[in-house]
Amino acid sequence: MWRRTYLLLFLIRVYFALCPSYIHPDENFQGPEVFAGRIFSYPSRIPWEFTAEHPIRSVFPLWPIYEVPMSLLKWFYTEGGSGHPPPQLVYYALRTGMFLLSFVLEDWAVYELVPSPAHRRATVVLVASSYVTWTYQTHTFSNSLETLLVAWGLVLIRRIVKNKQYSSFFSYAVLSLIAVIGVFNRITFPAFLLFPGLQLLPCFRCKPAALGIFVGFGLLFASVAIYIDTSFYRPAASFSDILRNPIITPLNNIRYNSDSSNLAIHGLHPHHQHFVANLFQLLGPAYVAMIVSLFNRKIVPSWMRNARALSAVSATMLLSIFPHQEPRFLIPCVPLLLSCVRIHRTRMFLVSWIGFNAVMGFLMGVYHQGGIVPTQLAMRSIVETNTASQGIKSQPDASVFWWKTYSPPQWLLGPDQDLDSGNSSAHIDTFDLMGIPGLEMIQRLDSAVPRCPFSSPVYLVAPLSATFLDTYSAESSLSSPHSPNIQLYRLWSYRKHLNLDDLDFGEDGVLRTLRRILGRRGLGVWSVRRACK
What is one Pfam family matched by this protein (predicted)? Predict the structure, then answer.
């Protein structure tokens, strides 16, 4: 039974790994977007974290996850004489890589962290049945990598403590490498291993050389990370320049996040957000069962008496100090807490657990901003087809405006020139309008659309649920009093797209808003034209 269930969950995880949902812009702009432009010369927009005077993101942990597979794909295509690989291949190759890391390393770590053989299989299946494992862990998040590093950090700590006298120095060296990668990946990493790491103090007391190995290799790996980061941000810097003025991205990150005015830019939340809302969003019925066990027992329940629970609870408490709190910050807590809880397989829990993860899996893994990646991958073909349909032989530059969506990854457009034939494709300029008011968006389009006769194509990408666009649709009989000369011709749409940022319960009411968001789900591409006589 366990094997069949695990096989089914494996297939479900593969399905969600290959679904092009878009959970958060960081999954693209803090990894693939940075390296795709450098390796393939694809169009890309480097985020501010990498362009600030004091960069706060390290490329040291990103190099093996993104740059190595991209470079291998480039080498394979170059050796085969095929030029650069298509962006969709690169996209799904990265997704497959994240899936394999999660499937192998996360499940293996969970299996080792559970000491009881009787509970190991049930725990691995429970973690594998979580929608967080299906979605977040298969996306290119730094939080997904942090989850693996935290889990294996706890595995090594457990191995060392269990074999205090006979643990090898190699274990301490690997643990120091995990610690350095974790810190340079996310500054939240130490919060997960701070208190469990105290178990190593007796080991260091018994074997002082182990402490020297841990600290020495840690300094070595940190020096390598600093050298790689400084060389990345200052390509012309010499070795002596790096020694005199190194770029230490974790310190820059701490300084940035210590300023509450900086955090206010990204959104401020109450300090109880993690415990009240975020953990429930990630764990659902499992979190409810954990809370119930706390109130039903006069003593501390068994699930809180191990290093995994200590890591998750203490990290959540420490991260709650900072006012900017997102659910993905607690992704490492999911396998840790699920590996602690012993839940009776009652019908009520099984039904609620399956229903919760099915709904959240399809919401976050399929429909959440799910049209952005397919639309961006198809955008060049849409532009070229529309240009040809209007009888324009050459490919003029195109301006594409995105409204009420997450920021589109520009590297998915691919190169402007077909390297196989040498023919130039349409150059596409991408403008992210985010969620500006509708009339302001129309004004931006009005200023971009050329005067008659039509020469340069302008396109709008927006959710189908945006009823404001109905007034300007060429299919509508209504005329707009604001800009009667602007007309929208729908060229393309992708139905598996939900825009949860467009909820307006105050104006439309709950039922009308849900009917609009769900009934008119999808992302559309319109050709913006002026009504020329």
Answer: Glyco_transf_22
